[in-house]
Design brief:
The chain has three domains: 59 residues, Nuclear Transport Factor 2, Chain: A, CATH 3.10.450.40; 59 residues, Nuclear Transport Factor 2, Chain: A, CATH 3.10.450; 64 residues, Roll (Nuclear Transport Factor 2, Chain: A), CATH 3.10.450. Helices cover 23% and strands 33% of the residues. The N and C termini lie far apart (67 Å). It is an alpha+beta fold. The strands form four sheets. It has a four-stranded antiparallel beta sheet, with helices on one face. The chain has four helices and 14 strands. It comes from Candidatus Thermofonsia Clade 1 bacterium. This is PepSY domain-containing protein. It holds the Pfam family PepSY.
């Protein structure tokens, strides 16, 4: 009986001693330098102007403030990006846009040089399309990733003024799929927009990198107040909606 009691006490002590170790490992924080590297990996050629470690009871996180006005919130245990905010107004062509609070899509694509790197350029994809449909012009263009059924291939998607939708494999320039368009993109007179196409493209590229390859003016639905927005397609995979009245970024999509 005495021997059994001693064994029980020893086992209980071992369990108690092991608990703090497990907790400390689960809550081990990444270093400040690691957090800075993650933030500057998103925005190269920026300087760190502010750092802060917030010891939240649920999720401790770093705030890394950068010289481009971005503040990157990074989970201090998992290295995940929680959110990215812009703390200063943008100034584009003399037009001040309101402060942003935008979370870019996860895993942003690094823009390659034309014809090299991750995918072919917009110009090369358009050339492949027009070799099949000479003279056809795009009404809408986006760079998107297909689903598992198609091996998660990245494609340039063109909706053309001849009624066809053409997808070009962004890895090698081959035609991926051709099909009739189900719905034609509508067009709106740019004169109805206070923000010009050039201003919208500059706002999009200054916030998410890359260069604009295609833009169109469209009107949102009733739940968004029928607002006019410029939908800007960037060559790094982002599609950015810029309010055509205020210059604010409304929505961001990525690959």
């Amino acid at each position: 009986m005495k021997k059994h009691l001693v064994t029980t006490i020893v086992l209980a002590m071992l369990v108690i001693l092991s608990v703090p170790t497990a907790i400390s490992k689960a809550q081990e924080l990444i270093s400040l330098q690691e957090a800075i590297s993650i933030a500057q990996g998103l925005y190269p050629n920026t300087e760190v102007v502010k750092t802060e470690l917030v010891q939240s009871a649920q999720t401790p996180y770093y705030i890394i403030g950068l010289s481009n006005g971005k503040s990157v919130y990074i989970n201090a245990t998992t290295k995940e990006i929680i959110q990215i905010t812009t703390t200063q107004a943008l100034s584009v062509g003399g037009l001040a846009a309101p402060p942003l609070n935008v979370v870019p899509p996860a895993a942003p694509v690094v823009p390659p040089a034309a014809g090299t790197g991750a995918f072919i350029s917009y110009e090369q994809a358009l050339q492949a399309v027009q070799s099949r449909f000479p003279g056809a012009q795009p009404l809408d263009v986006k760079l998107e990733r297909k689903g598992r059924k198609h091996g998660y291939a990245t494609v340039w998607n063109f909706k053309l003024n001849n009624g066809y939708e053409v997808e070009v494999n962004a890895a090698n320039g081959t035609i991926f799929e051709i099909k009739p368009m189900r719905r034609w993109p509508y067009t709106i007179d740019p004169a109805n927009a206070a923000i010009s196409q050039a201003q919208a493209e500059q706002i999009a590229s200054s916030n998410f990198g890359g260069s604009a390859v295609f833009s169109r003016l469209k009107q949102l639905g009733r739940q968004d107040g029928y607002a006019l927005v410029w939908e800007v397609t960037l060559n790094n995979g982002y599609r950015v909606e810029v309010n055509a009245t205020t210059g604010a970024i409304v929505k961001v999509r990525g690959l």
